[in-house]
Amino acid sequence: xxxxxxxxFLLLIVMCYVNGAAxxxxxSYTFIDYQKSIPKITDLLVRKQDTLMKQFKxxxxxxxxxxxxxxxFKYDSxxxxxxxxxxxxxxKLFKTYKIxxxxxxxxxxxxxxxxxxxxxxxxxxxxxxxxxYHLSLGLNYPNMSDRMLSDSTQPGxxxxxxxxxxxxxxxxxxxxxxxxxxxxAAYAKNQGQDFIPVHIxxxxxxxxxSEDYLKKxxxxxxxxxxxxxxxxxxxxxxxxxxxxxxxxxxxxxEYLIDDEALPKPKVEVVKRIYIKKKRAYxxxxxxxxxxxxxxxxxYPGGNDAFQALLKxxxxxxxxxxxxxxxxxxxxxxxxxDKNGNVINPKIIRGGNDEINDHILDAFEAMPRWTxxxxxxxxxPIKLKQTVIVEAADGA
Length: 395
Fold this sequence. Notes:
By secondary structure, the chain is of the alpha+beta class. Helix content is 32%, strand content 22%. The protein has 9 helices and 15 strands. Strand 11 and strand 12 form a beta hairpin.
């Protein structure tokens, strides 16, 4: 009898739901409804939502924000939250948070395990209420640019903005701060902002001391100069308009910022005919290269002499640039054997055939280096180098 009554009661519930749905009276289930079904988030909303509403009111902002934009500055250890409620409106700064800790150095993340915080243009692709770091907001690293420019097999991943003030390559804030960020992101997503942009910059470019530090960093790691220039362009676009620039990624994995992303008219170009050289390669077993060394090889005269050689290449080979291309970044790899000889230089990307051949000639003609050492023995090593060839001003 009990089973019959229980079945009848369940049947009644199903019939009521079907009738209600048929009459259009079924209640939609939103993203915020789902969040409220999680006890941890229900408690969070009870504790934090009223405070956030008051903060918005005090700043003349409308709660909840339909659109939020997060930008982070690695060297300055700051994270800003900008908000608005209409697409056409300019963003307004809601709050600046202090980042608790920083892993790695300036420059983009390029491989798993390097403890680098990424730099670039991302969006939130996950709201995780069950993070081991209290709460977390996942970023879509690696993006398309990262996949093209980073280590092809191990670019890394699992990058989050999270609580607990610890990091091995993420963006950590306090638990109180991640609670506010989580609520802001949840409400924006609930109102249709599926892609919440997060831009991670090396420095706050308006801070003179920070930009000076970046310039010194790029003197040593000049291969990142074009990347950081793109980041700077995006930063100042937002500073001028308080709107996000259009950001695309070209076939080389490079960012194109706003007007750079617009299609350019085709120009009829007459190319010089140049026959690429055939090169003989030294027979060498790369298995002889150790994973780590105690000391790196040294160019005759030291690093200053090597940098002077690179600058001479820039000056000498600029004549081989086309009129349409003012600067090229040629990345190559080469082996310094245990005797200090440079062998098998190879272009990885960049340049044209004529410039590339001249660069390879220069590396093949290098004098002997002081070789790398491991466990008091000379050993071979493979190195990578970027050579910048730039047209002189007014050329």
